[in-house]
Design brief:
Blueprint lengths: L4 E14 L2 E7 L1 H6 L5 E4 L10 E4 L2 E3 L4 E7 L3 H7 L6 E8 L10 E6 L4 H9 L4 E7 L6 H7 E7 L6 E2 L2 H7 L6 E5 L2 H14 L2 E5 L15 E4 L10 E3 L6 E3 L3 E2 L1
Parallel strand pairs: 8-9, 8-12, 9-10, 10-11, 12-13
Antiparallel strand pairs: 1-2, 1-7, 2-6, 3-4, 3-7, 5-6, 13-16, 14-15, 14-17
The structure holds flavin-adenine dinucleotide and FE2/S2 (inorganic) cluster.
């Protein structure tokens, strides 16, 4: 696994994509050159009363330019603080963290729900062929045009304002989307349903779990999930999402 780097990095661009959802490009060449889609960075707060870094997935990686992009939703004080930063400001980050996605062959379908959509953009663009993307939005759409450039996009909206009314699996069924491999990131109920769907249809399926974390580097066990296999070190049926994940084969984990 690639070695992580902690650094104070410059913000190259920050903009609001939709209400409360921000895109930040960061100049971080050492992290960019080691990173792969599905990995994440730990973002530190300037307010030292918030000791723990916030884990945010890599949305895009531009290795030649040494830049990484994160897209995040304001959830609380940490992400609120990040949203006030401007081009030219600095931000303390550590990464790349976690395992990232393994690229497979066949009919690839990437599925993102809500704030699980950003990491799927970097993954979709990493394939040489045009993949299928199924994106589930609750309300305002973001990153849609960027997905259109790299994937055949299907949208599901809860209110039916665009695409299929319902969730990402409703869109899969309505559009009769075929898959050999599914990659998904989003809320746990969505991942649980995709795991069941993939098992029933015998589709190879990778899930990225964005559960709560603390240390982000495998030291505190705050992020364990139940696994089918025993962990080789601890000999228990647990895996650390920040270290052995956040990406798992669906059949490996209990949701
Ligand atoms: C591997 C990983 C990748 C992630 N990638 C992204 C990303 O690309 N974009 C993005 O917007 N967010 C992402 N998250 C979630 C993000 O880390 C949290 O939203 C963030 O840490 C909240 O920090 P805060 O200080 O703003 O809010 P806090 O004050 O810490 O929390 C505010 C509220 O959000 C809830 N919350 C905190 N963390 C999570 C979480 N992981 N899942 C669900 N609810 C949470 C808290 O319970 C609380 O109700 C990711 C999380 C993980 C573990
Ligand atoms: S967050 Fe500490 S072990 Fe995963």
């Amino acid at each position: 696994m690639s070695e992580k780097v902690k650094q104070t990095a410059s913000i190259v661009e920050q903009k609001e994509l939709a209400e409360g959802i921000y895109s930040m490009w960061i100049q971080a060449s050492e992290i960019a050159c080691k990173a792969k889609p599905g990995q994440f960075i730990a973002v530190y707060s300037d307010d030292k009363s918030r000791m723990l870094p916030r884990p945010i997935s890599l949305c895009e990686i531009k290795k030649e330019e040494g830049k990484i992009r994160i897209v995040y939703r304001i959830a609380g004080a940490g992400t609120e603080e990040f949203s006030h930063k401007k081009k030219g400001d600095t931000i303390e980050i550590m990464g790349p963290l976690g395992n990232g996605f393994s690229k497979e062959e066949g009919k690839i379908v990437v599925i993102g729900g809500g704030i699980g959509i950003p990491p799927m953009l970097g993954l979709a663009s990493a394939f040489s062929q045009r993949v299928t993307a199924v994106l589930g939005y609750r309300s305002e759409q973001f990153l849609r045009e960027e997905f259109d450039k790299v994937a055949k996009v299907y949208v599901a909206t809860e209110d039916g304002s665009d695409g299929t009314r319902g969730n990402v699996l409703d869109a899969m069924r309505e559009e009769a989307i075929e898959a050999d491999v599914i990659y998904a990131c989003g809320p746990t109920p969505m991942l649980r349903a995709i795991k069941e769907y993939a098992a029933k249809k015998q589709i190879r399926c990778y899930l990225s779990l964005e559960e709560k974390m603390a240390c982000g580097i495998g030291a505190c066990l705050a992020c364990v999930c139940q696994s089918k296999e025993k962990d080789e070190h601890s000999q228990v049926h647990n895996k650390r999402i920040c270290k052995e994940g956040p990406v798992f084969l669906a059949e490996e984990v209990t949701l």
